[in-house]
Design a protein that fits this description.
Radius of gyration: 24 Å
CATH class of the largest domain: Mainly Beta
Strand order of the largest sheet: 3-2-5-6
Number of strands: 7
CATH topology of the largest domain: Immunoglobulin-like
Largest sheet: 4 strands, antiparallel
Helix content: 10-25%
Strand content: 15-25%
CATH architecture of the largest domain: Sandwich
Order of helices and strands: HEEEEEEE
Number of domains: 2
Distance between the termini: 88 Å
Shape: elongated
């Protein structure tokens, strides 16, 4: 009788231990996968980046190889010679032509890229870009995605300003 009671208690303990260990394993895997997305990244005029003209969000997304999960990212070029614009910024508004509420202003970095992992949903916002000489250009349609170079440079013109 005592041996049966000991086996029963051991079985309960062993099952509980296995269940607890499994839950720790599952949670640690989940944390490792989204650790990448908890990294805060935003471009600034003092930083440089890489892969100008490519779709940044291909790598900087949940499960991607890049650090941080960007909500919006792209590349900007000078109108005159199509070289990367290393000064300027993108603004995101709730209404077209720079009207409504300014939701975010993101500086272009030294590689001509802009990116942010901290602005939330960008779908439905309107973008404007301001070049180094103060030229402002407005996107006439609201954003469908924050992956700007998924269209610009592919199905639509690259993003340019002076």
């Amino acid at each position: 009788m005592l041996a049966t009671e000991i086996m029963k208690n051991f079985s309960i303990f062993f099952f509980t231990f296995i269940l607890f260990s499994f839950s720790l394993f599952i949670n640690s895997c989940k944390k490792n996968k989204d650790k990448n997305c908890k990294i805060y990244n935003v471009s600034s005029s003092s930083k440089s980046s890489h892969n100008n003209g490519q779709n940044c969000i291909d790598c900087h997304t949940y499960g991607g190889k890049g650090e941080g999960c960007f909500n919006v990212a792209g590349s900007m070029f000078n109108s005159s010679d199509k070289t990367p614009m290393v000064s300027g910024y993108i603004s995101l508004y709730t209404e077209a032509n720079g009207k409504g509420i300014l939701k975010s202003k993101i500086n272009v970095d030294q590689s001509g890229n802009f990116y942010s992992s901290d602005i939330g949903e960008v779908s439905g916002l309107y973008a404007s870009i301001t070049g180094p000489k103060g030229e402002v250009r407005y996107m006439s349609q609201p954003l469908k995605t924050g992956a700007c170079t998924s269209c610009h440079g592919n199905s639509t013109a690259i993003i340019t300003a002076n």
